[in-house]
Inverse folding.
């Protein structure tokens, strides 16, 4: 027997009460039980997304919310800018290129954040851009982009240009405010900071964006958000929804409200700071600078051999699963997820295991060193 | 406290062992744990779909499998025939009309089955039909269409015309054999006879259909089946899948194999025959003739007042949820689902409750009458 710890940047561990809620019994999706459930969720989920408008719940993976945002908010033949700073920006570009758009890519070195001044200059040279798309946290690099500054640049460029933000690995783990950040559409998935199994996707948008959805005639059916908005007014969904996950969502939103949103965000930042201090004490190089380090996932570099040793040892001897790099970062980084149902104590455990693994691997004594740094971060703030 | 019985034609009750499996703990979708899971599912799910080819698992509602079949198998500007015999045929037509196809509708009276001779004549008058689409069971009317005869007609018309069958409310409850029935693509969802919560959709197809998927250039991303087939070869999925539902699916497929597929189908037919005999003993008119009665759902007619009384009393006093009619059958029929994790004893319970409800409502003695007929069906076969 081995206690398992899933520390990937999604899926993430499911709290016990959420598992229980998801198993409480199936209900008809056209029953009053279900409309009561949706009615209970509606206000609570707005708080987490930082919006006063409705948040659409799709029964599908996070990727579907990227496609939904794209095909509902960009009309055929429009010019759009996709910021690509990692694997999920690249996926967003692949989605955009699937449909009849003129796609302009703003490339950012993987591991770096968008430089606002440079991006402003890039954008100013383009005409008639109707949509700009960016990750908030690029999961593949653990960078949190300066979304509020990018939003301001987009609106300064043209107040009618829509700004779509991918919050799949950040919503629920870091603060959003759609109005303050000039975000027209914020999307996310269930399996990251929202502590649910994968299978739900979310689309929050303001009234300006919603109008564009209505007028957009690009062919789509399952991802046609007009149907979801109409249904949401009646506390229901246009197609049979993933009922058990939505039951779980209600429990998750209650847990978040109980801890307090600000406390949830504080906890994520504390885990990030503890982990980063600990990794540095292990002489591991962080991929991302402090200013742009995501509160939800952390990436570090080392030799390919050492990384693969760390990952295997964590999995085989400690039951801890962490993630490797994606695409051209494969073999160059490892990523530790610290979002959702995860706590400072979990950071202590993974650092403790890594101290031992590296002490043996490098024949150098790291015992207590990473943990001490993490403790300093934790206790200094108390 | 009240024991709940969900007897709608989807979602359906979840077995306890499936709930437990879904709560056993989240696993990374890029881990060997997950590829092992997919590898375990692959052969078992083929048996249930009656195919030797791969079955794609989508993380989304059943409706998405209708759209996936359509946009992957019908190319732009092609002529397609949609058989519409109820609400889900109408949905399939709505999907078809969303995309650039020439859509021909073959209308069937709601509650009737396709008349093969008549359909053959209809089809023979059309040129260059590339795809024919039909429900197997039309959930909204409880009709099971003569799919094998329709499949033969389609292939006699043109051996290259693809036949797509919607098995959302029948796969797992009634036998399919893609080759024998000339079905090129069979789709389904998780929340009906497959005893899972909603949130998974399935697409089975033969090699001919798969080739068309590859050559079809209609824009699609999340529902582009090429990506799923490529991933399936590596026992994985292109996007983060609904892991907990897939864990549950593995348990469901084991349960089905343990009971034996033929026994599962027998059980469904027995529940149908018991229920139909009982409803007739209650002087309720069945919507569908014996020859086309689905083994998974049964519809009966009565006055709007009586139907609404039956439905409310079942819900309020017995905890039993059944479904009303959809679209123009609203207020004209009720539907009782009897698929998946449901047994002859459940039929006895609902008939027993209805005997009492109707005895009081009609001031006429029905005690024991429906149950007796159901018992005769059950025990005669033993």
């Amino acid at each position: 027997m081995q206690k398992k710890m899933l520390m990937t940047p999604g899926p993430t561990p499911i709290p016990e009460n959420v598992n229980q809620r998801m198993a409480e019994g199936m209900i008809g999706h056209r029953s009053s039980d279900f409309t009561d459930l949706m009615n209970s969720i509606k206000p609570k989920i707005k708080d987490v997304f930082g919006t006063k408008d409705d948040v659409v719940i799709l029964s599908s993976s996070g990727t579907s919310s990227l496609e939904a945002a794209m095909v509902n908010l960009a009309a055929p033949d429009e010019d759009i800018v996709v910021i690509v700073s990692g694997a999920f920006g690249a996926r967003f570009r692949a989605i955009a290129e699937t449909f009849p758009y003129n796609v302009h890519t703003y490339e950012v070195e993987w591991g770096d954040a968008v430089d606002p001044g440079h991006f402003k200059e890039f954008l100013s040279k383009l005409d008639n851009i109707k949509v700009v798309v960016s990750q908030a946290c690029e999961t593949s690099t653990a960078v949190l982009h300066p979304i509020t500054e990018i939003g301001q640049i987009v609106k300064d460029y043209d107040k009618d240009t829509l700004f779509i933000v991918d919050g799949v690995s950040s919503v629920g783990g870091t603060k959003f405010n759609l109005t303050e950040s000039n975000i027209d559409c914020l999307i996310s998935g269930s399996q990251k900071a929202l502590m649910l199994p994968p299978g739900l996707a979310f689309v929050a948008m303001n009234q300006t964006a919603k109008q564009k959805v209505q007028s957009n005639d690009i062919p789509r059916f399952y991802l046609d958000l007009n149907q979801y908005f109409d249904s949401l007014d009646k506390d229901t969904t246009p197609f049979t929804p993933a009922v058990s996950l939505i039951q779980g969502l209600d429990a998750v939103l209650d847990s978040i409200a109980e801890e307090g949103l600000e406390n949830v965000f504080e906890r994520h930042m504390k885990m990030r700071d503890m982990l980063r201090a600990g990794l540095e004490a292990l002489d591991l190089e962080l991929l991302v600078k402090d200013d742009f380090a995501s509160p939800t996932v952390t990436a570090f570099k080392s030799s390919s051999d050492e990384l693969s040793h760390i990952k295997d040892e964590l999995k085989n001897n400690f039951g801890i699963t962490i993630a490797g790099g994606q695409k051209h970062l494969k073999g160059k980084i490892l990523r530790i997820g610290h979002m959702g149902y995860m706590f400072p104590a979990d950071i202590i455990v993974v650092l403790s295991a890594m101290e031992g693994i590296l002490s043996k691997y490098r024949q150098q004594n790291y015992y207590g060193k990473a943990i001490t740094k993490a403790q300093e971060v934790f206790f200094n703030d108390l």
The first helix of chain B runs from residue 16 to 22. The mean pLDDT of chain B is 97.
